[in-house]
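From the shared-data thread, chain only:
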Amino acid sequence: MGIRFRRIYWVTEQLDDAGRSEVTGIFTSIPDLVERGVGIRPICDKNAGFRITLCALDSPNAPLARFGEAEFGEVETRLAEFIETGEISTEEVATLAATLRECMKKA
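Structure, as tokens:
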């Protein structure tokens, strides 16, 4: 089997008090998102907010999913369709959900 070309990617953003965002990272996998996007830049230290967005590569369409802090509890449910298609594993989604829950406890 050859190298798998990722068709989706994650964007992390810091939000300011006015709701403007600054992109802080772009990641092609949940392990990288968790280790380098959320873990190294603790969202606990945020000013006004933090958001992650799942996007399709080379697409003019709206993002596939967007999670602000209020939606972090919905990660597992809303990513179920990507588990069904094999794009994301159940374990990856569980790790992401647990990481977001843990970071929000510290906020």
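The CA atoms of residues 13 and 34 lie 14 Å apart.
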